[in-house]
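User: My collaborator sent over this chain with a note saying "see what the structure looks like." That's all I know about it. Can you take a look?
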Amino acid sequence: MKAAAITAATTAAAGAAVTAVVASKGQNAAHLIQSFGPAHALVSGSTCTTLYTGSTSFYQFAYIDLESNSGLAGAGADLIFNGEGTTSSQLPFIAAYSSSVGLNDLGNYYYPALSCATLQSLSYSTSTQINNLQVGRVFAVKTRDGDYAKCQVTAVTFVNPYFDITLEWETY
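Assistant: Without extra context I'll predict from the sequence alone. Here is the result:
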């Protein structure tokens, strides 16, 4: 039986399984076909595949590679995190590491609902710097390799005179 189109996809809280429901061609009944773990992209008409899912803390100053979860010293990095601050009112920032990386600040967008197809449809700026990082802040990245990633700040800690952040991300 061939599936005509994806008619529904549900995602519970972050880390929950995604369930795909498809309608069979010529029938009104929906059939459950498969449940995917949280690290799979489910996008109708897209060739998106999750390349990497990560959650890592970065301290003071770091280079971030969203394709390998490494804190590289420059080469290969997508983002640069600067956690310098003199008071807890001066929050840290993230910027594109090179001119081949683009950012889109999505503010408090609902992270689990941000699909690969949505990431592909956004416009990206190579000159964007995301300031005042706070818990819940969401941003999209077009990586130096041309992949797409969604990122969410899940923790910000001030340890005088630096900030530490924890990012959760998924790269497609």
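A starting point for your reply to your collaborator: The chain has a mean pLDDT of 74.
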